[in-house]
Amino acid sequence: MIEPSTVRFASAAVYAVSAVVLLALARRKPADLRRYCYPFVAVVAFAGVGIASWGAGIGTFDVGAGTLEAGQLLSDYVAYPFLFGFAAFVSGAGRRYVGGIVAITVAMRLGYDFAEVFAGPLATAGTLGILVGYATLVGLFFGPVASAAARQAPERELFFKKTRNLALFAFGVLIAWAMLQIAGLFDQFTATVTLEYLDLLLRVGFAGFVFANVETLAAEAGSDVGGDGGDSEPDASATISASSAD
Predict the structure, then answer these.
(1) How many CB atoms within 10 Å of residue 1?
(2) Could you report how far apart the first and last alpha carbons of the chain are, in Å?
């Protein structure tokens, strides 16, 4: 049987090639749109570095009853908050909504770590954190964030809906995978292959979708929501870029 490290090295190679292709595509975009593209290139590049180090066994450390991988943590804690934060940004929502969605996504990923390496109440709390966090994201994206998108240009509102649906669907599948993994229903090889496939879809697939529609962000934005004093769209973009760099 193929070793998990081999699968991860192959995945890292796909990320590396994808990052190069995305960078070339980003440079072909108009200058005012490249700032939306470059963070996705960084997310894919970070994933390649993280998965390669994971495959090499670098940065493995024991926590509780299990182990955590620094490479996986680097990849996930950069990618997941950024992707959901970007979906909120597309809606034109205020910084408080964008920041709140980023924070919820981080808490959900942390909940998976708790459920994976601890037992008893901590594991239960981690699992509940994932499920409650996802339900909260659904409520926000179909509630106040969707209302903010309705005040944008029609093309941008449609872009938001597609971005929201893609992010929620892909992450929902990933949560289902996590529940099966925590329950011990996957063997090591199956768990590795399916996780790498889902992560590639979420990172590279999401980036390709955004690149194909990024011109929509040139549409004039309407008024923001969030009750924080009329945040401007550039401020929201700066928030997302900062989140991707953390």
Answers:
(1) 7
(2) 37
Each residue's pLDDT tens digit, 105-151: 999 999 999 988 898 899 999 999 999 999 999 999 999 999 999 99
**Helix, strand, coil share (%) of the chain residues, nearest 5:** 80, 5, 20
- How far, in Å, CA of 213 to CA of 210, rounded? 5
Distance CA 86, CA 73 (A): 20
Task: Report yes or no: 45 and 82 within 8 Å, Cβ to Cβ.
Answer: no
Nearest to 243 by CA among 39, 37, 48: 39
Considering the chain, what percentage of its residues have pLDDT values greater than 70? 88
Cα-flanking dihedrals φ and ψ of residue 226, to 5°?
A: 130, -15
- The three-state secondary structure class of 22 is helix
What is the per-residue pLDDT across 20-30, written as a single tens digit (0 to 9) for each?
Answer: 999 999 999 99
- Give the integer Cα–Cα distance in Å for 99 and 105: 10
Nearest-angstrom CA–CA distance, 213 and 135: 27
Entry pTM = 0.82
DSSP symbols for 65-115: TEEEEHHHHHHHHHHHHHHHHHHHHHTT--HHHHHHHHHHHHHHHHHHHHH
Taking alpha carbons only, the member of 199, 244, 212, 206 closest to residue 48 is 199
Q: How confident is the model at residue 233 (pLDDT cuts 50, 70, 90)?
A: very low
Alpha carbon 43 to chain centroid distance? Answer: 9
